[in-house]
Structure formats: structure tokens, C-alpha cells
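Need the bound structure for zinc ion, inputs here:
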Amino acid sequence: MREADRSGGQLCAGGSAAAARSSGSWATDSAARASMVANRSRDTGPEMAIRRRLHAAGLRYRVDFPPLAAERRRRADIVFTRLRIAIFIDGCFWHGCPAHFSAPRANADYWGPKIARNIERDGETNAALIRAGWRVMRFWEHQPATEVAAEIIAAVRLASSATSSAD
Ligand SMILES: [Zn+2]
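Answer from helper R.:
Posting the output first, comments after.
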């Protein structure tokens, strides 16, 4: 997991297969960029692979859901509302993955600031959620789905047992 302070750089480097496949010249040609735009945030391959595993493990959750009712534009990818766990599967391009993001050569002066704003906004979203008592889990899309799903499942089961024993 990437903690909210984004200090977990080593996690990023651990994306072995996915990292090796995509660390080349992607994002530098217009076809790749168009594909990333089309795939933007929802129902991406990596996220679907994770959701399939969560569902298979019996977990039920909201998808693309705003954890904070007052801030409906801040949507998390996977949300466990009762347990207050908000999960983000961040695209390596859109969220500035340190292992994979490099501004496209064309229009670098556009993409650099745009991605910087996204990163800033992610930090604000983390802070707002944590203030409201939520647990925030962020992952990069390049992380293996099995590992991400296992971490989410463990967190949800731990939180479930904590809340049920506390009542
Ligand atoms: Zn990445």
C-alpha cells in the first residue's frame, strides 16, 4: 500500500512485470495518450482485476463512490462505507507514479502542471478523508492485483472484527 504521505517509493519499484512492460516509451506518443485518456479512471483493467478478487472473497463495496457526502466530486475507486475504508487505484500517468510518469515530450508544459495538480488534489483528498475518520488506502495501478487485493481483504477483515467486537 502507498501510505497517504506517498513515501512508499519502494512499493512502486516492486511492480515487476507490469513495471517492466510499461516503463518504456509509453505516454510519449499520441496513441498511448489517447488510450490513457479513454481509460481515465473507471473500470480500468487493473482495478477490475482487483475488484474481481475482492468480490470472489465475499467482500461487498461501492465503486466510484464519494466517501464524503459533502464533497461528492472526491470519489474513491472502492469504498467500504460502514468500515470507513476508501481505496484508490491510481493510474501511473494521471497520478504521477514516480516509476512510470514522465511528461510526454510534446506538451510537457501542459502535462507537468496538470499531473502536479492531480497529485496535490490527491493529498487534499487524503487529508479530508483522514480528518473525517476514514482510512485511506492508495495503490498504483502497476501493483500486482493479487497483492493489492490481499492487502485490502486483510484490512477489511481486521476492521470488521474490530468493529464487531467493539459493539
Ligand atoms: Zn507506476
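Comments: The chain has one domain: 9-166. The domain at 9-166 is CATH 3.40.960.10 (Endonuclease; Chain A).
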